[in-house]
Amino acid sequence: MNARVDQAVDEASAMSAAACMFRSLGDPARLAILRHLASGEHKVVDLTAHLGLAQSTVSAHLACLRDCGLVSSRPQGRASMWSLQHAAVLMDVLASAERLLAATGDAVTLCATYGEATR
What we know:
By secondary structure, this protein is mainly α.
């Protein structure tokens, strides 16, 4: 392969990885979990109470976030304490998303392809 093809493959691979990361952040419940974990470690029961979601739902979202390298857990008795991985970088990404949303106004929520009406 020549350098130009290698560069295109590397760029495609990077864009694919970025798209996967954004899909992991593409659920309101997962974003709420991440925001809550930004305040510190929590058990699943704490998250279910705070978010008003079923335990199985929270656990499934935590598994997704763990598989994407965004959260981790440690045992504490019979429970697990969940926390953010790479908290500073993740909070920077979420803050950047908030700034972009502010700049675009209602465009994303009104988008015919990805907006709230498509849910």
